[in-house]
Amino acid sequence: MTAVRRRLLVALSSVAFAVLVPPAPAWAGGTLVGGDPADGAVLPSAPTSVELEFSAAPDPALSHISVRDAAGHEVSSGPAVRDSGRTLRQPVAATEPGDYSVAFHVEFADGSELVGARFFSAGTGLPPAAGAAERAAATAAVGAHEHGVDPLSAVLLVVDLVVGLSVVLLLMRRPRSRRPPRNGPPRAWRLREAPGDEPEAGQLP
Known about the structure:
This protein folds into two domains: 3-19 and 151-193, no CATH class; 32-143, Immunoglobulin-like (Sandwich), CATH 2.60.40. 29% of the residues lie in helices and 23% in strands. The chain is elongated, with a radius of gyration of 35 Å. The protein is an alpha+beta fold. The chain has helices at 3-20, 132-143, 151-173, 187-193; strands spanning 32-36, 41-43, 49-54, 64-69, 81-82, 87-91, 98-107, 113-122.
């Protein structure tokens, strides 16, 4: 394999690695700074929405808020929307008294992510059960929410990879061309064309 082919193979391999292995998200972005209801709030009745305020601007298209009752039933109504530059509002369709969890998986404009959970009670007069087990279960449920690649982008990535690998295989299998020596014709040609090499009359060749 020539040096040119090796360099091309390394370049295409780097492109394939960059396409198939997405960059890891940065974790030094925004934090949760407040919300309504507050964590641990005791409300007389269930709210029609919950709000979460962050220290950085969240991306509502890539963020997810899940509001569930004590039985684990989803009571969120529709997607989360951004009320202001740093606040997400999640509509809620809850009517029964009980404890509720607000779990969130938020992606910010700089690509960083944040996962967490808050709790409140409605109509019980008692603080919500918000121990370590409840928080772990709530964050695990919302943490499973992933944003995959859309089908068209996936197809294009596969096509690019196949084309790149095909080019590499063709270059590796192409036979090397035979070039004549740089100092003139082959030695057999020089022997035939050199003067004085022809047999004289009466001599056998």
